[in-house]
Structures are given as structure tokens and as C-alpha cells.
Protein 1
Amino acid sequence: MITLLGALTPTKWFYNSSSPCDVNIYVINGGVHSDILLPVKTSKFDWDDFIPLSQIGADTNQEYKYLSFGWGEHDFFINTPTVADIKINTVIKALFYPNNSSVMHVRGFNNLPEKKYVDIKGVRISYDNYLKLTKFIQKSFQIDNTGHVIRLVNGYNAHSGFYSATGNYSIFRNCNNWTAEALRLANVNTPVWSGLSAPIMWHLRNNCSYG
């Protein structure tokens, strides 16, 4: 009952709607994982400067228009591309082992995913809030001693890859909690309890005015 109440309760009841709407951002609900989908390039930020697009997936594509970011537990995330691949021992380790390492799953898109194939929802935010969001995501990557991200293995398809990430995964901080933390920094409304992806999707609302 308490969990349900937290899932239905927003972190913010009111917004200052005077900020301009400059950037479209998106959240993808994969059922198990949630991912944040962002444009590769805006007038304020270019992801190619942080993650070389040609190195994300096995296809070495350099023309991606969008990138998705999802944070999660190392073993569970890499070995669980779909709900059908879930194994109980992997779940128990991810939730209850105290020092789980984490990874970032990055996927490139040439176009926005179609809603008939993917559960995706978008909101518009200001550039200031967008830069807060990008900074949070960048800090979630581990950086090597040369200042570059650390790519580990190929992802679920030819357009994605896994990278070393910061932070420890647990029952108290999972992939959806990470997504909610990122969105809150961008002044996007989220549920008080964000352990599952569905409540995050339900609370997404545009939080700035259309100029």
C-alpha cells in the first residue's frame, strides 16, 4: 500500500511554467529497464564530444540522431536483454549483494523509435535543465586516466554498447531510480517511489511553457 501510494504521488505538485521549452527529451519503458533518450546534438551540447558515435555499436555508425542511456547492475544488465532472459540468481545478486558494479547501456538511433513498437514518452525542457541532465549522465560514466569513457562490450544489437559506470546497484537504487534522479535534476516530475518504470512514465508531463 505504501509503495503504491509512493508510485502515485508526484515529487512536485506545482511548477513554475515560465521557463522556455527548448529541447525534447524522451523516456523509454522497456518493462524491466527504463532509458533516457536524448538528441545527439543541440546548440548547447554534442554527445559525440563525450562518446564517439562510431564506437558505440558494432556497426560503427556515425550518423545517429539520438542516443539512449540506461544505468544498471553489471551482470543483470548485460545478460538480460529481455524479460524472458531473467534468471532468479542474477536477480537476487543484483538486488541484495552490497557491492554490485554498474554499467551504462548506450544505444544509437537514426530516428525516434515508433510508438507502435516501443513504449516511449517525451517532454520538453529548457536548455538550462537539459545541461543539468547531460551533466548527471556524464558523471554516471567511469572515466579512464586519459579522460575517456570505458567501453566494455557490445550491447543488445549492432547499435549499442555497454560502458563502465559509477555507483552501486541495489534494491534501494536500481535502474529506474537512476532515471528518476536524472529527470528530477532536469525539473521533470517523477513519482516519490520510482522503483518501477511504469510510475515514471505515468508522471511525465511537460514542465515549461511553449514559446
Protein 2
Amino acid sequence: MVQNEPEKKIRHIAIIMDGNKRWAKKHHLPTLKGHSEGAETVQKIMKAAKEFGIEYITLYAFSTENWKRSKREVEGLMSLLRFFINNNVEKINKDGIRLRAIGKIGMLPDKTRNVLLDAIEKTKNNKEGNLILALSYGGRAEIADAAKKIADDAIAGKIKTAEIDEKLFSTYLYNPDIPDPDLLIRTSGEFRISNFLLWQISYSEIWITDTLWPDFSKNELKTAIDTFYSRKRRYGGR
């Protein structure tokens, strides 16, 4: 690996986990089997990320647009989410990982939301790393929600409009203490952001692989990280 330079050390990797359905179709299996295999990959990548010293991993698990999928698939995904959390929360906790979530969590079914919130509460004091699940999440919705909160506070006299700048705006996002992603990974070869962390990825490096998410491996994560360290980041400067 290229030697780490302190000013550009990776702290946060965000991943658009794409390709579960295509993986299932490729293997002549039901769609939910693809999602199940994708959940297995999450466990492997969490372990690898910790080995590589990554403090934050944000996974695009369920978008606001995903509610448009068939009722059966949505129910299956919610069931799989509960299964994943229930089966992994003890290990996550033992490893010192803090589980967090961003998105319109109130839209999740009660049973799923309760399992999620219980796991978040159980791991809230952990400091060895952060796993952030983007659930019922949309980047535009997050920005719109932040704008509404700012407007409410301005009307209430809590802030002045002259004080509103990028730094202040950032404090109104879902989890403002989480640093912006250094690296955004998208699997399955699609060249789209898909409404993911639109504010936060302004200066993130992007790495795209044709590999479908269920086949994504520790070695590919290392390749993405190595690629990040080989790039020169200018942030608009020379």
C-alpha cells in the first residue's frame, strides 16, 4: 500500500451496495437470496474495514426509492434487516463497533425499527468504529429536512439568516458529527450516485467496480483503498 499521508488518511468509506438482484438472477436464484448473500458480504467487509483501520463505514442499505419495490420484496428486506441485526449485534458490540442509522427511520415497520433502535442503544458507547446504515434514506430528503429545520429555527429567532453558511448547514444534517466520506465505493459497475450522501460526498474520491455486491471481497476493498492513496487530492486547488 502507498504510505499513508496524515492529511489524507481514510477515516470514512461510504458504499453503494449494488447488484444483489443481478447476482440472484445470474445464479438462477430468488431475489431475496441475492439480498441474503449481500448481507453476508456486509459482515466480511465490516471485519476487513476494521483490519484496515477505517473508523466509519456507511452502507446504503435501503433508499427512499426502494419503498416503490414490490410489497413482497420490501417485507423480505425488512425481515432480512432484522435478522442481520439480531445475528450480529452481539459481535458488533463485542468488537466495540457503534451501530448508527441515517434516514427517515420513522418510516420503517415498527418491528424493524424497534430492533434497530435497540441495537443502536446497546452499542452507543462503543468507540472502536462506526457502522452507519442508511435506511429509508435519500440525499435530497436529508438536505430538504435540514433546510426545514433551519427555517424553523430562523423563524423562532434561534439563528439569524446572516449566520447561515455551509458550516452551519452541515450541523442540521442527520448525523452532523460523522466526518464526510473520504472514499465512495459503488459495486456492479453503475456510474450513478443514486441520491446518496449528496452533501457529504462533495470532495469524496469515487471508486467503481463491476463486481456485484455479494461477490465484493476484502481484496477489492484493499484495492479501492490503495487507489485512494495513489490519487492526488487538490480540493479545487493546483
Protein 3
Amino acid sequence: MKLYLVQHGEAIAEAEDPERPLSAAGRADVGRLAAFLGNANVAVVRIVASGKLRARQTADALAGLLTRNGAVSEVMTGLRPGDTTEWLADVAEQWRDDSLVVGHMPFLGKMTARLVTGREDDDIVAFTPGTVVCLERQMVDKWSIAWVLAPMLLEGPAIERDVRQTDR
């Protein structure tokens, strides 16, 4: 089973809009990420997201290409920056199908560390807005990092061309 942990895309400043929707750059990054993952045949049974607008927008963009029905499965509380990771670690152990979680830092960094090392204070992945970490469960309570993809890796003419072809 794979668990994809995604930090929402870049959001506009709170002073500009207290709801903090995705910025134009954030929407573009998430669009490239969705196209790349879709082209790589990443598919998930469920996508859960934080209730914050920027996380929901990121989840919606990913759901369109990565789920069978194109919809976010659930908006969950407990995925905010300061929330505890224990509940999601317990839930993820019950999941049997590939799943994707869209949330915030430092929650996602702590969640990654908790699943991989057993200690949420280990700093093992450098998340930036729009980053996805693919964790793979080896056995009960044993996860490893399969790969990490940051938006800066998806920039450039070849990627832009692939994204345009996917959008047709």
C-alpha cells in the first residue's frame, strides 16, 4: 500500500485574503503535479484533505486525475499544522488501498517522520508547497520513503509541453 502525503500548493498571503486560496503559481504547480502523477499512472482509492481552502483546492486538482470518480473522498479535521499525528497513523494502518492526504506543515513532516522512524520529531523530508512524498508500507507499522517530488522538479519546457498534451 502507498500513502501519498502532499503539502498544499503555494497560497496567497493572509493579508490579501484571509481564506488563503492557492496563488496563480500554486495552481500551476499543482496542475503540473497532477498531470505528472496521472502520466505516471498513480491512482488512489481515497483523497482526504484538511478543511482549509488551499488544501481543498489542491486535493480537488489531484482528484480529477488520480481517482476513479474524480472527487475528494473526505475533508478531515486533524490535518492542520499543529495537530497530532497519532490519529492519522492509526487510520493509515487500517487502509489497504493506495491513499493520498493533503495537509500542512509541520503536520506532514511529523507524519512522515512518525511512520518512517517512529519519532515525529525527526526531520527527514524538506517539504515545500506542492511537494508529494510517497510512503510505502512494508508490513504493519513499517513504512519507507519510496520517492519525493517537489514542484521545482516539474518546471521547464519539456514538462510544460507534457502538461499541455495532458490537458487536451
